[in-house]
Amino acid sequence: KVRNPRWSGSWPRDLPTIEKQQLAVYANAFLDRTAERLPAIFKHRVDEQSIRFRKLCVTEGDPTRDVQATEDGIVLRREGEDGYRASMIGPLLRVGGDFDVTVRFDQTALECDLGNIVSVRLDVRAANDADDLALIQRYVNRSQQQQIQCLKMESIEGKERRHYFAHQPMEATAGRMRICRRGDQVYYLVAENDSEQFRLIGQQPFTTEDLAESGIRFGTQVQGVNSRGQVRIRELIVRAERLGGLATEDQDAVLAKLNAEREQLPASYRHDFVTSPPDEEDIYRWSDRSAWDPKAKGLVVTAEGSDDWISAGLSVRRRFYGDFDLSLDFLATK
pTM for the whole thing? Predict the structure, then answer.
């Protein structure tokens, strides 16, 4: 404790900018400054519509069991089994050149037995021959210690080479993880809780090739039958020299464009099952060939379950050439 401090000299009363702080880490200022110059940006507040509108997709895990979309973010959960299991999501993005990926998360809950691990992680994977991967994870290690850790992985002649480094204590259950590439180097950073100040914890050589399709992922991984992992992702920000993919497209604009192009297609076929039965010359049916009932307001197709695989349906006896546009109006009934 310090009591009754006395100021002397010309010490500044306000905190200087990072560039003027002698003890500040230069790399952080360099990364922040260069991130602002990256021309393409994808900034997404994660909510219950993120997956529906194809901003994010589930890359690993069971969407019905492990993923819960809410107004304030997407909660990812995973229960342990034998070996490693994960629940992961990522943006439908193509990323090229220098990039800066930041994920805001909270509600972290990690449990595992002694000797196993469970983690919350952010990783990026490149589309080069070595399949370069950079990963940062907040995890419970095999000794039950709460830590932050980095990984650089690559494949050489079909064998994975993993380099874990920068093991540091971290007990925060919320914050931001960040992975940046500048040239042929990748940087790993973390900010705990609501801090706006990132801490650089690692740096490694990395390919300059573009990231793979869906090459950004975030989620939880568990090991062992008694392991449990949970985390909520709240915001994703990606800055890069080049960005593309479904996540960057305006879905309403894409739909309007497709509708306009459909009207220009010269040939068409349409059948209304509400007003007329299927024509066998045009429609092929399998399994369920029940008679058409005008009171059903459509063609009812039923497949009764059994111990074997079974299906029922219909197909159009037409050939399609060039561009096409197919649509089917249906109502699933119990």
Answer: 0.75
User: With 90 as the cut, is the pLDDT of residue 119 above it?
Assistant: yes
- Kindly report the CA angle at 25 between 21 and 29, in degrees rounded to 5? 80
* Contact status, residue 233 vs residue 74, Cβ threshold 8 Å: yes
The C-alpha atoms of residue 267 and residue 159 are separated, in whole angstroms, by: 53
151-199 pLDDT, tens per residue?
A: 999 999 889 999 999 999 999 999 999 999 999 999 999 999 999 899 9
Average pLDDT for residues 275-284, to the nearest whole number? 89
Query: What distance, in Å, lies between the first and last C-alpha atoms of the chain?
Result: 70
Are 287 and 312 spatial neighbours (Cβ–Cβ below 8 Å)?
Answer: yes
Mean pLDDT of the chain: 91
Structure tokens at 107: 């509600």
Q: Amino acid identity of 65? A: R
Q: Count how many residues are written for the chain.
A: 334
Q: For residue 173, which amino acid is it?
A: T
Buried b (16+ CB within 10 A) or exposed e, 55-90: bbbbbbbeeeebbebeeebbbbbbebeeeebbbbbb
Q: How high is the pLDDT of residue 193?
A: 96
What does the alpha-carbon distance between residue 155 and residue 160 come to, in Å, rounded to a whole number?
4
Task: Say how far apart CA 28 and CA 23 lie, in whole Å.
Answer: 12
8 Å CB contact between 204 and 182: no
Contact predicate 251/50, CB 8 Å: no
CB 47 within 8 A of CB 69: yes
308 exposure class (CB count in 10 Å sphere: 0-12, 13-18, 19+): exposed
CB 239 within 8 A of CB 38: yes
